[in-house]
Amino acid sequence: MVTHTCALAAGELAEIRALCELVYTDYDEDTWQHCLGGMHARVWESGHLVAHASLVLRRLRVEGRWRRCGWVESVAVHPAHRRRGHGHAVMGELEALAPGYQLLGLCSSDEGLPLFESRGWQRWRGPADALTPDGLRATPEEDTIYVKASARLDPDGPITCDWREGDVW
Fold first, then answer.
1. Mind listing the pLDDT tens digit for each residue in 103-132?
2. Rounded to an integer, what distance in angstroms lies between the CA atom of residue 59 and that of residue 65?
3. What's the CA angle centered on 103, arms 113 and 74, to 5 degrees?
4. Sign of CA dihedral 59, 60, 65, 67
């Protein structure tokens, strides 16, 4: 099921946040805010939320042009429900929204890499920057940026993300 943030009840949002806080040890307010304002894919089992991922609008500069990007955030599968296809289910729902964007992107944890690679996401190998209020800032620590696009892109070229509070990628 895919639903926009504005259509989620307060209780549903609380369940999503609780799942993300369970899965990620460093899930803070900025990270929570990053997953809001877009589409949320969820999987329920026996009335309990077991998987979630969201897709929000961002701008990425790739090959010298700013592009409309669907950015994947807060992919979380309850530890007791892993290896049952729930991660694939929420990603499939979000990837179906790709025609609304020029590309899809995400930044992965080490644990999530097998899921994204198995779904055809391509690792970005080129230099990464963020456009901050103080200008362009290199982000060499970001080495798990992945993209999925209908057009061929050079994954060895530079990539720049728009600014946001907290982790920029």
1. 999 999 999 999 999 999 999 999 999 999
2. 10
3. 45
4. negative
